[in-house]
Amino acid sequence: MDYGWRYFSTYRLTKAALEEFLTKKFGDWNFYISETEGNRYRFWIQRDLTQAEEDEIIELRWKG
Fold it and tell me: What pLDDT tens digit does each residue of the chain (64 aa) get?
C-alpha cells in the first residue's frame, strides 16, 4: 500500500463530510484531517483516490 498525505479543496466541503466519506471507503481509521493554508484539507490514506472517488467527494459539496 502507498500510505501518504492527500489533499482536497475545502470549497463547500465540511470536514465531517470528508471524514464520513473516507471512513466508508477505508474503514475506521484516523485520517489526521487538517485544514491547510490555501483552503485545502490534508488527510492520510492508504492510496491515491481514484477519479471516481474524487468525483464523489465533489458531489458532497452540494449535499446539505
Answer: 689 999 999 999 999 999 999 999 999 999 999 999 999 999 999 999 999 999 999 999 998 6
Closest CA to 34 of 25, 21, 49, 44: 44
**Could you tell me the residue ranges of all domains in the chain?**
4-60
pTM above 0.85, yes or no: yes
Distances (CA, A) of 35 to 1, 3, 14, 40, 52: 24, 19, 10, 6, 23
